[in-house]
Amino acid sequence: MxxxxxxxxxxxxxxxxxxxxxxxxxxxxLAREYLDIVTPTWVQITSxxxxxxxxxxxxxxxxxxxxxxxxxxxxxxxxxxxxxxxFTVAKKALGSLHGFPGQLLCFAAFLGx
Length: 113
What we know:
Elements: H1 5-34, H2 41-73, H3 86-95, H4 103-112
Helix pairs in contact: 1-2
């Protein structure tokens, strides 16, 4: 009997969630055992918790740098980033609608096409 796809997916990607905090814990443990570097418990807990978000930010920065470099090597220019989030842009777009009750439906139909 085969496993359903959910547990299979979780097991295939578990290393992406477990390895960064485990690596930080291992580094702190090795620093304490072999280098006599003692860090407070709150620093250890904070660094283990922040390992995954820090890795995510670093990976995004690396991918952005890689894309800029590839575009530059091809003589291309990347499109500029919108400084606001998608929610802010949608709020501004919907906020500009006023006056008629059916205007929102027309706007939604325009976005759908």
